[in-house]
Amino acid sequence: MKLIVYEINMIIGLSVLLCLLFAGCAEAEQAKPDGLLREDNRMDRKPILAGSWYSEDSAELRATIESYIQKAKPPKIDGRIVGLVSPHAGYVYSGPVAAYGYKILMQDKIRYKGSTVVILGPNHRAAGFSGISIWTEGAWMTPLGSTPIDTRFAKALMDKLGPIAEFNPQVHNVEHSLEIQLPFLQYALDNDLKIVPVVIGSQADNVIDNLAKAIAEIADENTIILASTDLSHYHPKRQAYALDNIFTDAVLSGNADSLRKVVRTGKCEACGYNGVLTLMKCAGALGADSIEKLKYATSADVPEGDSSQVVGYFSALFLDTGKTEKLEGSMKSSNPGNSTEKFDLTKEQKIYLLKLARKTIEDYIINEEVLNPPPPDDQLLTDDGAVFVTLNRDGMLRGCIGQMIAQGPLYVA
């Protein structure tokens, strides 16, 4: 799978943004990277979403989370929480769904306080990053306080992963999918926890297999694996339901290979698929024997939503209920040194794709026609590839759209 991330600093055509909702990654239009706080020879991460995706006022933020948790009606759960799947849009959209998982965590907070939570999220914004970045030191801050990194766990994970992993603060400092989980965690566990934030920039099987294997070897009963993902993006509500049902059914089956197949064949969508797959592959080794669906909804289910273009949200738990038979994760041990394949375009190939994108937009806006270009002679451009586009203005994200999985020829994508 070839992934190309293009950073575009000027918006080509006003219509590009019409296909984006604030309910998905486009909400980052107000997210502002504030840099790092360096103190006592360590690096702490300041929040980039406070004041946009959630309130920057601690009392207001606490009240918002409390309201979502009070309204959530999750089923009664027996067993130890091994893993959690939770959405990562702005709280007004995905907060009501996320609250289901965090309410269960909160209801048994005595058991889970002091836990290490490994937060797995995809790379939305760091152009060209295709590895794994693990934050290994300091703390992460939100309006609800400062939560320390489990440095021992993070560095052990880094050591086991070898060359496919690094500590890249710049990748973390523009990524929203991990931070968005933290205020809920802080609220649910009275901020008595440690975290290991992990950005996964690759969909490669051996990268995910090695990450799952490494986590399984380090984690214990005081570890929770949190996979951060939204589901389908910007489809009509009925189509979103169909796509998302395929994804959730695959997750609930407990079969990691089934999830991999339905995502990579384009039958469903999930931007944080790689984190969910990692969780599925290591959960059984950590004691999980069952998966419980807590809640599914879309951005259209809130007053601010638009049913013509929705984003899907899903909350689920991976549980150890004491059964002898555990989930089968199908983990494989791969050589980390061969886990990524460098992929570059020539200047001519980039110019061709840029002109093609511009021509497609112009034809649609001016002539109301969908361009159907002939295949180029360049073999690389006709190979399957994925394209993810981010739109920036004055250094701030104004929107993003695309596919993380190769589903057709690059020039068509």
Strand and helix map with partners:
Elements: E1 3-8, E2 36-39, E3 42-45, H1 58-71, E4 80-86, H2 91-107, H3 109-112, E5 115-122, E6 132-134, E7 139-142, E8 145-148, H4 151-161, E9 165-166, H5 169-173, H6 182-188, E10 193-200, H7 205-218, E11 223-228, E12 233-235, H8 237-252, H9 256-264, H10 273-283, E13 290-298, E14 310-320, H11 347-366, H12 379-382, E15 386-393, E16 396-402
Parallel strand pairs: 1-15, 4-11, 5-10, 5-11, 6-9
Antiparallel strand pairs: 2-3, 4-14, 6-10, 7-8, 12-14, 13-14, 15-16
Helix pairs in contact: 1-2, 2-6, 4-7, 7-10, 8-9, 9-10
Describe this structure in words.
With 413 residues, this protein is α/β, with parallel strands linked by helices. It has two domains: 1-30 and 344-413, Glycoprotein, Type 4 Pilin; 35-338, Protocatechuate 4,5-dioxygenase, Chain B. Helix content is 32%, strand content 23%. The protein has helices at residues 58-71, 91-107, 109-112, 151-161, 169-173, 182-188, 205-218, 237-252, 256-264, 273-283, 347-366, 379-382, and strands spanning 3-8, 36-39, 42-45, 80-86, 115-122, 132-134, 139-142, 145-148, 165-166, 193-200, 223-228, 233-235, 290-298, 310-320, 386-393, 396-402. The strands form four sheets. Strands 4, 5, 6, 9, 10, 11, 12, 13 and 14 form a nine-stranded mixed beta sheet that branches. The chain is globular and about 60 Å long. The two termini are 13 Å apart. Residues 1-22, 26-34 and 331-341 have low confidence and may be disordered.
